[in-house]
Amino acid sequence: MTSFAPSPTGIRIGSAPDSWGVWFPDDPRQVPWERFLDEVSEAGYEWIELGPYGYLPTDPARLRDETARRGLSVSAGTVFTGLHHGPGVWERTWAHVADNAALAQAVGAGHLVVIPSFWRDDKTGEVLEDSTLTAAQWRELTTQTERLAREVRDRYGLRTVVHPHADTHIDSEENVSRFLDATDPALVSLCLDTGHYAYCGGDSVKLIETYGERIGYLHLKQVDPVILADVVANGVPFGPAVARGVMCEPPGGVPALEPVLDAARALGRDLFAIVEQDMYPCPPDKPLPVARRTREFLRACGPARPAG
């Protein structure tokens, strides 16, 4: 696992393909990966995530070369899982996880972001399963997540951070607390996405203060409260909600990021805070100016840990 120097503690700011409108390994509406790498570096970031597996080069040597010559390092890979379905989905899930984890390890990342599967289709809104888990499904979700985290740690040296996400079963304050209370802190940490947690009615500062030892990683984003109110009132699925602009450029939405970062710094340890400006699909010239302004805004929020 990538090791951090013990002091000074702080926040390492980065960005991700998501901030360039990238949701899929290959999509004609997305910018080419070379442009993403060029522009994320130009915007002033030094850390990135891998994004959807296959978007960036999957050959580790090539990816290391492409990132290094732009002054970039990789903080994490990302996977989607449906572990509440139990052992029957393990082999298929592990095949997907192993590819991502191997690449993340090979390029020096220390984390694997695990996102639960959606209960409704994020494009069409089709309901795929009940939005509420049974007690048995909760047991499968927690035990299989621990199993995944143990395997990822033992085989690849990565820390598993589970990402509460809109339109999944780990979303609200109640469900996030239930998940954390039922999982082993030695195995499972949280990727707190400030935008998704606000989208689902949660208070990020309260969560950090309550479950500080479980906060292993941050995604920084905000929601537009006016658009969110309409999305909630009309049951709009996550994908169309993003297309409406529900995730907005800081500092124009909620939660306020300064208190979140202050609460995270108060934990007294190093954390990654990766900007994820959900805006799929978007015009190809939109992301870079937004990324620049967001980086400047975050610099004004307080000191970040130097790269290294």
UniProtKB/TrEMBL annotation:
Residue ranges occupied by any Xylose isomerase-like TIM barrel domain in the UniProt entry: 37-301
Pfam families cross-referenced by the UniProt entry: AP_endonuc_2
Signal peptide positions (record): none
InterPro entries: IolE/XylAMocC-like, Xyl_isomerase-like_sf, Xyl_isomerase-like_TIM-brl
Regions annotated as coiled coil: none
The protein's name: 2-keto-myo-inositol dehydratase
Organism for this UniProt entry: Streptomyces nitrosporeus
